[in-house]
Amino acid sequence: MNFEMVMQDLEALGKERTKKIYVSNGAHEPLFGVATGAMKPIAKKIKKNQPLAEQLFTTGNYDAMYFAGVIADPKAMTEADFMRWIDAAYFYMLSDYVVAVTLAETDIAQEVADKWIASGEELRMSAGWSCYCWLLGSRPDGEFSESKLANMLEIVQNTIHDSPERAKYAMNNFLYTVGVSYLPLHDKAVETAKAVGPVEVKRDKTKSKFLLASENIQKAVDKMQLGFKRKYVRC
Prior knowledge:
Radius of gyration: 18 Å
InterPro entries: ARM-type_fold (IPR016024), DNA_alkylation (IPR014825)
Distance between the termini: 20 Å
Organism: Paenibacillus solisilvae
Largest sheet: 2 strands, antiparallel
Strand content: under 5%
Protein name: DNA alkylation repair protein
Mean pLDDT: 96
Structural class: mainly alpha
Number of strands: 2
Pfam families: DNA_alkylation (PF08713)
Low-confidence stretches: none
Helix content: 55-70%
């Protein structure tokens, strides 16, 4: 399938209701409103195709950009490629669920994510912390430095309340993911989550929301989900 065929198929799959949901989360035109599950048959035909993924990602069309992440070949992407992608990711569903997810399947994931976390820019920070969540939730514990992750927990404890809104979500999720998926630091993550307490995130036009990682970690413990690892990062 070529670029034009993919765009035609995506447009045909678009639904107004789905489009409204995406827009309410921060997407803007151009977009079709394609449910992610509806993309799977097209993805099966294409499998991985990095040149096509690049064409789709540069359209600025949300659905095409999302689908680019589905068919991307992460191992063919360089740090410069990921920097281009994060530059174009204009809201969290792209930064955290397309760019960060794709980065998590590479050997340079931690190196690039560290730079994004240190950037001070909201969506870069969000993508960086989210990338670690995808990594910790899918890779063996032995692939990580315990001391580095312990230091990252301290950074979360000391800075989360003053961080940008989307970064707060990702940092809170990092606390949860370390507590559930990285067994060497389960106790420290629980301790840190309790010290952090409720995290207030402000949302447009609606009341603030409060995130509580300690409660969610305990729910996972109750469900005997400690040590959970997913088989695949991307669907």
